Amino acid sequence: MPVESGSSAASRQAKQKRKSHSLSIRRTNSTEQERTGLQREMLEGQDSKLPLSLRSNLLDLFGQIEREFENLYIENIELRREIETLNDRLTAEGQTIDGGDLTKGALKTKASHSTSQLSQKLKTTYKASTSKIVSSFKATTSRAVCQLVKEYVGHRDGIWDLSVTRTQPVVLGTASADHSAMLWSIETGKCLLKYVGHAGSVNSIKFHPTEQMALTASGDQTAHIWRYMVQLPTPQPVADISQTPCDDDIDFSDKDEADGDGEGPNECPSIRMASTTLRSHQGVVIAADWLVGGKQVVTASWDRAANLYDVETSELVHSLTGHDQELTHCCTHPTQRLVVTSSRDTTFRLWDFRDPSIHSVNVFQGHTDTVTSAVFTVGDNVVSGSDDRTVKVWDLKNMRSPIATIRTDSAVNRISVSVSQRIIALPHDNRQVRLFDMSGVRLARLPHSNRQLTLKKHIFYLKWVWSN
User: Fold this and answer.
1) Which is nearest to 405 in space by CA: 433, 432, 367?
2) pLDDT, tens only, 53-83
3) What SS3 class is residue 22?
């Protein structure tokens, strides 16, 4: 028998090893071939009425979907690892921070710090690093208490505006989409008078500074001035209602909405005729206000203009044009002949009528979306709110940039400023009502869902009572 040499035997063994290794590689890495074979077995082993080509295409599509899910699963795993790495890094960095002091001496910490001490340091450092950022999410030390005192039920549709008289008797006025304005006793919640002279939604109501007259603006393209005479009923003791802390975590059981049918105890006398009707707008009159002294009024309309009228003659004195889109609000200064108008064109304008011979205007472009309202304070400030989720406080003496900015989590509607306490009340699209001071620090939040009150609808406006 022939005998193989050692070299040839070794060569053959090496070839067999290479062949075995090569086959092993194909078995472990040929995923596509394995899937193809599996698909072939599935096609041949299943009894289906579908054509073979169609079944093959379906299996190919299912295979692609499976691969996409595999890729997503792998990406999720990698993202989790990155998040864990970042969390570890943040924790490690937090151990070296000491109250915001970035000196080398402050960066040294002892390894014996407990977890509670580290957590406290992180909280302190976070507050210190964000103390200059004015935001509605900023933690506050104030624990103001809010309490529901009275509900005023009688309108059949949404309420657009509120106002409180500055003279006696002190009454509350409401303007509604049900084409009416109503006067209420603040103490008892009883309707005292109902004005039904408009042919459209009543969008605004403001009271004369010294006389018993009301100014209403409407979707019927007019503004009405009407006189009222009311007698306040004997006040009843206010029911004892438990106080509710203004905490963001409050969430009690809701109660059903009251039906504003205007019948029963809230039925009240009505008037239909206005003493003065102001016309000339070509669109919805969205707001109106009295100038200081009460001899002139200003109206704001969707026709992109604001008009200044003489109350005694009903004549148009000035047409204030310049806004590029519909106006959303107008407001007058309490002691000076100044008017501020806001618009959907992202601007608000300051009109100066202190010089009778000429009026000047300044345009302010501090927002990036609709300016829903801009109002004066008793001092020299203007507060503007916008759909861009910001509220800005401006100084009339220097309007180049705001002195404070409040950033919120929802669009801001018509804002209201407390006359005596200089507190800003913000009604939001998300049914929240938050209170801030003039520097932008949040003071409280009115509960929107509790045993006493359920705010299920859009909050458009609110008003401070003069007694605050």
Assistant:
1) 367
2) 888 888 888 888 988 888 988 988 888 888 8
3) helix
Burial class of residue 441 (count of CB atoms within 10 Å of its CB; 0-12, 13-18, 19+):
middle
- Provide Rg for the chain, Cα atoms: 35
Instruction: Note whether 318 and 359 are within 8 A (CB).
Output: yes
Domain range 145-231+244-446, its CATH number among 2.60.120.620, 3.30.450.40, 2.130.10.10, 3.40.390.10? 2.130.10.10
pTM equals: 0.64
Which whole number is the average pLDDT over 203-214?
A: 95
Q: Which two tokens stand for residue 197?
A: 């002279």
Report in angstroms the alpha-carbon separations of 179 from 72, 184, 219, 283, 458. Answer: 57, 17, 9, 16, 19
Cβ within 8 Å of residue 217, ≥6 positions away: 175, 202, 203, 204, 223, 285, 286, 287, 288, 299, 300
CA distance 207 to 198: 17
Q: How far is CA 226 from CA 95, 207, 223, 309, 332, in A?
A: 68, 10, 10, 15, 20
Domain-wise residue ranges, the chain = 145-231+244-446
Do 222 and 285 meet the contact criterion of CB atoms below 8 Å apart? yes
pLDDT digit string, tens, across residues 154-173: 999 999 999 999 888 899 99
